[in-house]
Amino acid sequence: MNIWLAEHSGFCFGVRRAIQMAREAASQGIPVCTLGEIIHNPIIVAQLQAEGIDVCEDPSTLWDHTVILRSHGVTKDMMDSLIRNGNKIVDATCPYVRRAQQLVESMSAAGYQVIIMGDADHPEVIGMLSWGNAATKVLKADERPDLTGGQQFCLISQTTEKPEHLAEMVKWLAPRVAELRVFNTICLATQHRQEASERLARKLDRVIVIGGLKSSNTRQLHNLCSQYSRCYQIESEAELKPEWIKDVSAVGLAAGASTPAETIVAVYNQIKQINGEPNRVTAVGEIPLFKEESC
Ligand code: F3S
After folding, report:
1. Residue 159 Cα, ligand 1 centroid: separation in angstroms?
2. Which residue is closest in CA terms to ligand 1's atom 2?
3. Would the pTM of this model clear 0.90, i.e. be above it?
4. Phi/psi at 91 (nearest 5 deg)?
5. Which residues are within 8 A (CB) of 21 and not within 5 positions of it... i.e. 6 or more apart?
6. Which residue(s) pair with 53 in the sheet?
7. Active-site residue among 37, 105, 124, 161?
8. Helices (H), 174-255
């Protein structure tokens, strides 16, 4: 059986950076905690807890701690509360997310009605919204804004939004308002991962998506791959069912931005074991990457 891994699978730059910053802070021998789970992956959260990096939920209860802000960023209120309580902040907000927050803040202050396109319940968007003002709104990709509030609009998107959704919103808005400023805050890591996973799913009729069940980018990958292939999402190799990969000659693997390389390796090796094949890998770089010419 051939097993191919979609290109750009696994940790993105922002997640890798956040975990590294957390480990560096903990290595100084001081008690540290992350505000919320650093990434939506229970394996990594448990590993970090074993290294002394706890998860705290309520910033108002933290005093004189070293607090790591996760890559999704936090709300302005949370930041203010942490500073007020004398905490030391290790800001691991992904620079791409921070740029979006700064744009929301500066464009709101400049008098624009800022529209954030994205999922209003996602922590990244909740954080972005908090840097705006009362006129700042969050809209889903298929919603359209009420234009009675003003004539100067600014469109900013969640980093994981699809470029075509942004383009559709611009097309709708541009002819209807006097002024529109658009900032493309979509992160290319997400776009590249989705495109590579789609290429894989279009060619293979069995795809395993690896990643935390709470991870929205992993869920998006699962939804995307399910359009073209029979697709299963798992958090770890223990959830892999032999019947999923029975009678197929090739299996594709794709992994979200919060999936560690060790889990991808473990899933690959578990498939090999289920098939009774001897060769195992020890690093993600040893797994063949899927290319169009792979099959
Ligand atoms: Fe940052 Fe993009 Fe990852 S916004 S956290 S590099 S998916």
Report:
1. 7
2. 187
3. no
4. -85, 100
5. 68, 90, 92
6. 32
7. 124
8. 188-203, 216-226
